[in-house]
Design goal:
This protein is 13% helix and 39% strand. It has 758 residues and is mainly beta. It has 4 domains: 258 residues, TIM Barrel; 204 residues, Golgi alpha-mannosidase II, domain 4 (Beta-galactosidase, Chain A, domain 5), CATH 2.70.98; 70 residues, no CATH class; 165 residues, no CATH class. The strands form 9 sheets. It has a 10-stranded antiparallel β-sheet with strand order 13-7-8-9-10-11-17-24-23-20, with helices on one face. Helix 2 packs parallel to helix 4. The longest helix is centred in the first third of the chain and has 17 residues. It is elongated, with a radius of gyration of 29 Å.
């Protein structure tokens, strides 16, 4: 599908309604949501009586809903999932009701999003089953979701109002450049910051989910580089936990954000939010590599770096975070005399499940050459360093300052004083204040290391001798935090920590390369007594995502295409202690079922079965239900005739899809393949509690979604019912607002509804 010629402001010569519908089918075939984004007139006036501009919007919404989202006439494959407006004040209750009536007539499962900037009024009390707020980021004006902005647009601790709880989206900026006045100039560190700052509250409070999705403005080739798109994809599919390597070009001192703050743009619109303190204390040309536990920072003009640890494990490294330095002089080379230092870094694997930062260093005016490689994995409290060194100087040291640690334990012996150690393989450093975590350092490859010099309160130096060439590999791991009190770490568990560190570094040290070949699934084993995160390198990817079975549940997982190993994918798996996981290419599990469109990250599947190609079954877990999804759904490999949910008849399905109650929980689905024999519901924002067909009446009982307390005055839910060619004679506690030969849309309030068919 050829895209539009320009970004905006021109006539799209090669775009049509047909192209839009074709693109929607393309997205749904790949299980993605698809919606319309529109800029409507800004001077809409008040509520009733509606001015001419409001009437114009009403007519436009009716037309676009009919032409692009008619679920009766177009089917689920071609109907748009929702509509997003910018500058159109949907939050006004009466106006929203009028818009929704026109939309829900054609598509009872369509969502609406109000896209707003930080300068605009925020409808904090606006809530409806299908309504969400999206903050608009304008990077040029330094808006956006940023925990250092004193005007954070949407606070998860706010009062939500009597209607219910708001869910939020974020329109983030990832444009390197912009073809017009708006936005652009974004760098990878700001992509990382926007995404992680937005989702951090969700990671902290998994039982109170409000941050539902982030969408990027705009990752097309017109506005972004290949490097930026890789960064966006790698970070977005694994927020907070992702491993990332980049520089601090936006958020560092002297970076683009800092420079804008120092110009008259800081007074734009009189907004004091631009006068914020720096996001980072490091310079903009500092290279970083991080995951949710560690960040290592390397400045190009200073040997050695700074190693930070996030005491919460939430990838929060701003100057207002709980991140603290473990080492203020990390990996510097100790050499006699003085000379010129040059360093040049590159990002071998920039973002995703695996990040690799590599730098070439010339020390003593070229007498020592080093290639330092730092590797981090997603959601892993451990990382690896490799130093390849050639030297004209026979004796060198590798310094790791540990200023806050005052003891080291080796082979069961703890030292509180300065000591010279004879080539230890594993060391556990402790902070007697119990503020910093125990740090385990492992020597995976000793190179020419002869001794390790340790001095409490200062650190250690790995002393190498008789050097011409050497390769040193080190690994660094932290123990788990005490859940009772953030910032206090478990002590006295060095033995457990060493066992866990061995398991973690095993995962880092050995690249697990796997190939599907003709196999449908691959099983991966963990021989260690501790759970680990392993990154697989798949040598024969098909261009699709994957499904991973962990703890018995099949879950969706995206892939990270490797830059270093062209034609390979990285894939993250969570291996239980002395257990295994299975991996398969994305598709119908055992040829039976997969997550329905838009539901990859909110559902999991297990216990898949089939019976003589006539029946199929599975167990499904629904983790959470944001307003973007009118109902969680499973897609089966064949058309469905009838469904049972937890052993009871269930009349909520459409062609090959089964829809589930819109709330968290676990259910058992059993389907029979064939042509539907009874009328059935196919979409609504109401939560179906029960259904019954007596041969004449389809009785449906509805509740409200978990995030909604009550509806706007004069707003009713709608539902699409397929009748299988039967004529609808009457409805009870509802009214018919749209019909075709084989379907009707009814309007109703929560409670029991009956549709009589002849």
């Amino acid at each position: 599908i050829k895209g539009a010629e320009h970004y905006r402001g021109v006539k799209f010569k090669n775009w049509s309604d047909r192209h839009s519908i074709e693109l929607c089918r393309h997205a749904h075939a790949r299980d993605q949501l698809f919606h319309w984004f529109g800029h409507y007139p800004t001077e809409l006036g008040g509520d009733e009586p509606y001015p001419i501009f409001s009437q114009w919007v009403f007519n436009l919404m009716k037309k676009t809903a009919r032409d692009f989202s008619d679920a009766l006439g177009m089917g689920w494959q071609a109907a748009f999932d929702g509509f997003v407006s910018e500058t159109c004040d949907l939050s006004r209750s009466a106006f929203f009701v009028e818009i929704t009536k026109r939309l829900w007539k054609f598509n009872p499962g369509a969502y609406q999003i109000e896209n707003r900037g930080p300068n605009w009024d925020r409808p904090l009390t606006a809530c409806a089953p299908n309504f969400m707020i999206a903050e608009a980021c304008n990077h040029m004006h330094w808006n956006g979701y940023d925990d250092k902005d004193p005007i954070v647009a949407y606070d998860r601790n706010m009062e939500h109002g009597s209607l219910g709880k708001n869910h939020f989206l974020y329109q983030a900026d990832c444009r390197n450049w912009s073809p017009n006045f708006f936005g652009g100039n974004t760098r990878p560190d700001y992509v990382l910051k926007q995404c992680n700052d937005f989702f951090r509250g969700r990671a902290e409070h998994p039982d109170n989910l409000m941050e539902s999705a982030v969408w990027w403005l705009n990752e097309s080739k017109i506005t972004g580089s290949d490097e930026m798109r890789r960064t966006v994809y790698g970070i977005t599919q694994d927020p907070i936990k992702c491993a990332v390597a980049c520089d601090l070009g936006t958020t560092g001192v002297g970076g683009t954000m800092d420079r804008w703050h120092r110009t008259d743009m800081a007074e734009y619109d009189g907004a004091p939010r631009y006068q914020t303190r720096p996001r980072s204390e490091f310079f903009h040309d500092t290279s970083i590599i991080q995951n949710n536990f560690f960040r290592a920072c390397f400045h190009k003009n200073i040997d050695g770096g700074v190693l930070l640890v996030d005491l919460e494990g939430l990838a929060h490294y701003d100057s207002n975070s709980l991140a603290v330095p473990l080492s203020g002089d990390f990996l510097s080379t100790v050499a006699p005399g003085v000379g010129k230092l040059t360093r040049k870094g590159r990002y071998v694997e920039p973002a995703g499940y695996k990040a690799v930062y590599e730098e070439e260093t010339e020390i003593q005016s070229g007498r020592v050459h080093e290639r330092r490689t730092v590797t981090m994995h997603s959601d892993t409290p451990c990382f690896k360093v490799q130093i390849r060194r050639t030297s004209e100087i026979p004796e060198l040291g590798t310094r790791i300052a540990l200023e806050q640690y005052d003891s080291v334990t080796i082979d069961g012996t703890t030292y509180h004083q300065t000591v010279s150690l004879d080539r230890p393989k594993m060391m556990v450093f402790a902070d007697s204040r119990a503020i910093l975590p125990e740090l385990t350092v492992l020597v995976l490859k000793p190179g020419r290391i002869q001794t390790v010099e340790w001095e409490p309160g200062k650190g250690l130096i790995f002393q190498s001798k008789d050097i011409q060439q050497e390769t040193i590999e080190l690994a660094f791991a932290v123990l788990e935090a005490d859940s009772e009190k953030v910032g206090k770490w478990e002590s006295g568990k060095s033995r457990d920590g060493i066992a866990r560190a061995r398991a973690l570094t095993s995962a880092l040290s050995f690249q697990r390369e796997v190939t599907f070949g003709e196999k449908e699934a691959i099983e991966i084993f963990n021989p260690h007594p501790s759970p680990i995160v392993r990154i697989l390198r798949i040598t024969d990817p098909s261009g699709s995502p994957y499904q991973v079975r962990e703890n018995g549940w099949w879950m969706f997982r995206g892939a990270q295409p490797s830059l270093k190993h062209t034609g390979c994918d990285y894939l993250k798996v969570y291996l239980p202690a002395e257990g295994s996981v299975k991996v398969r290419r994305y598709g119908f599990i055992d040829g039976v079922v997969k997550n329905g469109w838009g539901c990859q990250y909110i559902t999991a599947i297990k216990e898949v079965g089939t019976e003589k190609n006539r029946k199929a079954s599975c167990t499904v877990k629904v983790f959470n239900t944001p307003p973007l999804i009118f109902a969680p759904r499973m897609q089966f490999a064949r058309k469905i005739a009838s469904v049972e949910l937890d052993g009871k008849p269930w009349h909520y399905f459409d062609e090959d899809l089964v829809f589930l109650p819109n709330r968290p929980g676990t259910v058992r689905i059993e389907v029979e393949y064939g042509e539907p024999a009874t009328p059935h519901l196919t979409r609504t924002y109401g939560v179906l509690e029960s259904s019954h067909w007596d041969g004449k009446n389809l009785t449906l009982e509805f509740g409200l979604p978990p995030w909604v307390n009550k509806l706007y005055p004069n707003l009713k839910l709608t539902a699409l019912v397929k009748t299988g060619g039967r004529r609808v004679k009457s409805v009870e506690e509802a009214s018919v607002i749209y019909r075709t030969e084989k379907s009707v849309v009814i309007e109703y309030l929560p409670g029991k509804v009956a549709v009589e068919c002849a």
